[in-house]
Amino acid sequence: MSQSRTNGNESESTAVLAALGNKYSAEILCAAGTPKSAQTLSEDIEIPIATCYRRIEELVDAGLLTCEGRQLSTEGRRTNIYRRTLDEIEVNFSSEQPALSRKNRTEAKNRLQDQLHE
Protein backbone atom coordinates (compact mmCIF):
# COMPACT_ATOMS: atom_id res chain seq x y z
CA MET A 1 0.00 0.00 0.00
CA SER A 2 1.15 3.47 -0.69
CA GLN A 3 0.76 6.09 1.99
CA SER A 4 0.13 9.76 1.45
CA ARG A 5 -0.24 12.65 3.83
CA THR A 6 -2.27 15.79 3.19
CA ASN A 7 -1.26 18.80 5.23
CA GLY A 8 -2.93 22.16 4.88
CA ASN A 9 -5.14 21.23 1.92
CA GLU A 10 -8.29 22.50 3.56
CA SER A 11 -10.64 21.76 0.67
CA GLU A 12 -9.54 18.11 0.37
CA SER A 13 -9.69 17.58 4.12
CA THR A 14 -13.11 19.19 4.29
CA ALA A 15 -14.44 17.07 1.41
CA VAL A 16 -13.12 13.85 2.92
CA LEU A 17 -14.42 14.62 6.41
CA ALA A 18 -17.81 15.69 5.04
CA ALA A 19 -18.12 12.50 2.99
CA LEU A 20 -17.09 10.29 5.91
CA GLY A 21 -19.46 12.10 8.25
CA ASN A 22 -22.55 11.10 6.29
CA LYS A 23 -24.63 8.13 7.35
CA TYR A 24 -23.70 4.90 5.49
CA SER A 25 -20.47 6.27 3.97
CA ALA A 26 -18.21 4.10 6.13
CA GLU A 27 -20.37 1.04 5.44
CA ILE A 28 -20.15 1.65 1.69
CA LEU A 29 -16.35 1.97 1.88
CA CYS A 30 -16.08 -1.25 3.90
CA ALA A 31 -18.32 -3.12 1.45
CA ALA A 32 -16.46 -1.76 -1.61
CA GLY A 33 -13.22 -3.66 -1.04
CA THR A 34 -14.11 -5.57 -4.21
CA PRO A 35 -15.85 -4.00 -7.22
CA LYS A 36 -19.60 -3.64 -6.69
CA SER A 37 -22.49 -1.86 -8.33
CA ALA A 38 -24.60 0.68 -6.49
CA GLN A 39 -27.45 -1.85 -6.48
CA THR A 40 -25.27 -4.52 -4.87
CA LEU A 41 -23.94 -2.04 -2.28
CA SER A 42 -27.51 -0.93 -1.53
CA GLU A 43 -28.61 -4.53 -1.00
CA ASP A 44 -25.52 -5.53 1.01
CA ILE A 45 -25.87 -2.60 3.40
CA GLU A 46 -29.68 -2.58 3.32
CA ILE A 47 -30.08 1.10 2.45
CA PRO A 48 -32.35 2.77 -0.12
CA ILE A 49 -30.82 2.90 -3.61
CA ALA A 50 -31.27 6.71 -3.85
CA THR A 51 -29.32 7.18 -0.62
CA CYS A 52 -26.64 4.79 -1.87
CA TYR A 53 -26.22 6.78 -5.09
CA ARG A 54 -25.90 10.05 -3.15
CA ARG A 55 -23.25 8.60 -0.84
CA ILE A 56 -21.36 7.07 -3.76
CA GLU A 57 -21.26 10.44 -5.51
CA GLU A 58 -19.93 12.13 -2.36
CA LEU A 59 -17.29 9.43 -1.84
CA VAL A 60 -16.17 9.60 -5.48
CA ASP A 61 -15.95 13.41 -5.29
CA ALA A 62 -13.81 13.09 -2.14
CA GLY A 63 -11.49 10.58 -3.85
CA LEU A 64 -12.39 7.74 -1.47
CA LEU A 65 -14.25 5.62 -4.02
CA THR A 66 -13.61 5.17 -7.74
CA CYS A 67 -15.61 3.90 -10.68
CA GLU A 68 -13.70 0.91 -12.04
CA GLY A 69 -15.78 0.47 -15.14
CA ARG A 70 -19.15 -0.86 -16.22
CA GLN A 71 -20.73 -4.28 -16.38
CA LEU A 72 -24.07 -5.75 -17.34
CA SER A 73 -26.59 -6.11 -14.53
CA THR A 74 -28.84 -9.14 -14.21
CA GLU A 75 -31.51 -7.05 -16.01
CA GLY A 76 -29.15 -6.47 -18.95
CA ARG A 77 -28.39 -2.81 -18.17
CA ARG A 78 -24.90 -1.34 -18.04
CA THR A 79 -24.06 -0.31 -14.47
CA ASN A 80 -21.04 1.39 -12.92
CA ILE A 81 -18.83 -0.70 -10.65
CA TYR A 82 -17.16 0.99 -7.67
CA ARG A 83 -14.23 0.15 -5.39
CA ARG A 84 -12.64 2.06 -2.52
CA THR A 85 -9.33 3.76 -3.19
CA LEU A 86 -7.85 3.31 0.28
CA ASP A 87 -7.70 0.85 3.14
CA GLU A 88 -6.97 3.24 6.01
CA ILE A 89 -7.34 6.91 6.78
CA GLU A 90 -6.11 8.81 9.81
CA VAL A 91 -7.14 12.35 10.73
CA ASN A 92 -4.88 14.48 12.91
CA PHE A 93 -6.56 17.47 14.55
CA SER A 94 -3.52 18.83 16.41
CA SER A 95 -2.90 21.69 13.93
CA GLU A 96 -5.10 24.55 12.82
CA GLN A 97 -6.36 22.43 9.92
CA PRO A 98 -6.97 18.66 9.92
CA ALA A 99 -4.16 16.63 8.37
CA LEU A 100 -5.09 13.41 6.59
CA SER A 101 -2.89 10.37 6.32
CA ARG A 102 -4.17 7.61 4.06
CA LYS A 103 -3.02 4.18 2.98
CA ASN A 104 -4.10 3.83 -0.62
CA ARG A 105 -4.90 0.48 -2.17
CA THR A 106 -2.38 -0.85 -4.65
CA GLU A 107 -3.35 -2.40 -7.96
CA ALA A 108 -1.64 -5.62 -6.81
CA LYS A 109 -3.91 -5.82 -3.76
CA ASN A 110 -6.97 -5.17 -5.93
CA ARG A 111 -6.00 -7.99 -8.32
CA LEU A 112 -5.35 -10.39 -5.43
CA GLN A 113 -8.72 -9.64 -3.83
CA ASP A 114 -10.45 -10.05 -7.18
CA GLN A 115 -8.92 -13.53 -7.56
CA LEU A 116 -9.97 -14.52 -4.04
CA HIS A 117 -13.59 -13.50 -4.68
CA GLU A 118 -14.04 -15.23 -8.04
UniProtKB/TrEMBL annotation:
It comes from the Archaea. Residues 104-118 have a biased composition (Basic and acidic residues). SUPFAM superfamilies: Winged helix' DNA-binding domain. InterPro entries: WH-like_DNA-bd_sf, WH_DNA-bd_sf. Signal peptide: none annotated. Residues 97-118 are annotated as: Disordered. This is Helix-turn-helix transcriptional regulator. It comes from Haloterrigena alkaliphila.
